[in-house]
Amino acid sequence: MNLTLRVWRQPGPSVPGRLERYEAADISPDMSFLEMLDVVNEQLAVAGQEPIAFDHDCREGICGMCSLMINGVAHGPMKGTATCQLHMRSFTDGDEILIEPFRAGAFPVLRDLCVDRTALDRVIQAGGFISARTGAAPDGNATPVAKVDADRAMDAAACIGCGACVAACPNGSASLFTAAKVSHLGLLPQGQPERLRRVLRMVDQMDQEGFGGCTLYGECMEACPKEISIDFITRMNGDYLRASLSAGEPRT
Amino acid sequence: MTLLRFYRSTIGKKLIMAVSGIIGIIFLILHMVGNLQIFVGPDRINDYARFLHGPAAEVVLAQRVVLVVALVLHVWMAWQLTRINRAARPQAYTRREPQVTTLASRTLRWGGVFLLVFIVLHILHFTTLDLDPTFVELDVFGNALKAFDSVWMVGFYTVAMLLLGFHLFHGIWSSGRTLGVSPPSRAPLQRRIALGLALIIAIGFAAVPLAVWFGVVP
Predict the structure, then answer these.
(1) To the nearest whole angstrom, how far is the Cα of B200 from the nearest Cα of chain A?
(2) Per the CB < 8 Å rule, is B105 touching A231?
(3) A105 and A123 fall within a common domain
(4) Does one domain contain both A104 and A140?
(5) What are the C-alpha distances in Å from A196 to residues A123, A225, B116?
(6) How far is it, in rounded angstroms, from Cα A65 to Cα B64?
(7) Would the CB atoms of A72 and B95 count as touching at under 8 Å?
(8) In A, which residues are within 8 Å of B174 by CB distance?
(9) Most Cβ neighbours (<10 Å): which of A112, A196, A212, A218?
(10) Which of A152, A148, A131, A159 has its CA nearest to residue A250?
(11) Contact with chain B for residue A100, Cβ under 8 A
């Protein structure tokens, strides 16, 4: 396959960026999208040019490091996958592919296609944990959890924190991410003592980071490589309302 | 402190929008049922108007206060959220392809502005009778016949009701989700109740100007 790429190049956070055109020749349809970029980068390096910076790590769809807005769609045209699991067979020979970074005020561009997503880490730090004393691992079935709850908690916990929900949202909202992180603990018995405090603190942090509000467009769910449902946003909203109606912030 | 925190958060603002929106929806249903009495005959709807301005005057006054407060809060929160949302993406994409965004959610903001203008003009038209000096107080039937004699007026009202339908199609569905009361769904974007209710309300209101224009009112 021969493809034309239009790639966002930006040398640093405070330098204006622009789209550059590259030719990607002899691309195998069995390559992943990131492998295609590796090939382009090898050619750039041979030619003495600066390679395209892009985030990646596990390349098997579980780390949440890869990103990319491909032809205007977060993680590209394949539903339910991250960019690393998108293969070039999803494109046709001669295609022009536009590659931009995930854009949000809370995701400043570091270089080219790499953005700083530590805002999401700070949302987790605000309350995405349980305060339990550590010790020996408890018995597997010491705390019974209903199958339906365990399944839903697992659906929420599938979030890899890639930020595609933010990138795809017309409002740049991190509601789906925050909702997933609020819910996977809130659905389990271990998460109950801090449930209300957690939602208040994580939502506060989400707002402070400069993410937008939720209009329930549904774009986040469509972009999510783990296909996390906006039902969790509904759940977070309900928890937030309950927490706001309860007297003050619970201490523990 | 809790209240301030609630008001400052984007979810708190959305909850205010949801509750004020639901107040609006309840009013719309009552208003529509009132309007549809025009199809029974001139006496029926004019009697209803006299009832609202006579025995029920205090209730109507209280309802107006609630509605004005709800409307102000709804518009104010929409304004604030729009500003927050715009600020959240300072640099726009060269290309962004929406996958599931509905026409209804796309027209929410500008449609809302249009509806606000419509509400003001509609009150000047039928409540304060300022737009047309020939209107007669409490003769709702006669006023409606005069108002919808003009194709422009029928068009304006019909377009407003179309946008209202869109607004409600998104708003009814999303208010349940904002309040956290919608049950989990396998197809979360499906919204049968919102579709049904939005259609009933939009058609119920648009029926009056269209019926007058086509001369099917008794």
Answers:
(1) 23
(2) no
(3) no
(4) no
(5) 15, 28, 37
(6) 53
(7) yes
(8) 215-216
(9) A212
(10) A131
(11) yes
Residues 11-40 (A) with a CB less than 8 A from some CB of B: 19
The DSSP call for residue A69 is: E
CB A76 within 8 A of CB A99: no
Q: Which two tokens stand for residue B3?
A: 């209240």
Distance CA B202, CA B25 (A): 11
Last residue of a domain, one of A88, A111, A134: A111
Is the pLDDT confidence value at A250 over 80? Answer: no
Q: Is the separation of the CB atoms in B178 and B152 below 8 Å? A: no
Phi, psi of A213 (to 5 degrees): -90, 170
Q: Which residue has the tokens 């408890």?
A: A138
Phi, psi of B59 (to 5 degrees): -60, -45
**Helix segments in A158-230, DSSP class H:** 164-168, 175-186, 195-208, 219-223
The number of C-beta contacts closer than 8 angstroms across A and B is 156
Nearest CA in chain B to A229: B188
Write the pLDDT tens digit of every residue in B33-55: 999 999 999 999 999 999 999 99
Q: Which of A111, A136, A151 is the last residue of a domain?
A: A111
A189-230: pLDDT as tens digits: 999 999 999 999 999 999 999 999 999 999 999 999 999 999
The answer to whether the CB atoms of A105 and B2 lie below 8 A apart is: no
Please give the domain boundaries of chain B with CATH numbers for all domains.
2-87+101-213 (1.20.1300.10)
The C-alpha of A177 sits at a distance from chain B's nearest C-alpha, in angstroms, of 14
Please give the structure tokens belonging to residue A228. 């996390």
Residue B213 corresponds to which amino acid? W
Residue B127: both structure tokens together: 């409540």
Which residue in the set A172, A218, A237 is minimally distant from B100, CB to CB? A218
* A85 three-class SS: helix
- Give pLDDT, residue A252: 46
Q: How distant is the Cα of A7 from the closest Cα of chain B, in angstroms?
A: 11
Q: How far is CA B105 from CA A207, A216, B91, B109, in A?
A: 22, 8, 22, 8
> How far apart are alpha carbons B70 and A156 in whole angstroms?
35
Query: pTM value?
Result: 0.94
What is the rounded CA–CA span in Å between residue A19 and residue B94? 9
Element (H, E) at A33: helix A33-46
- Domains of chain A: total: 2
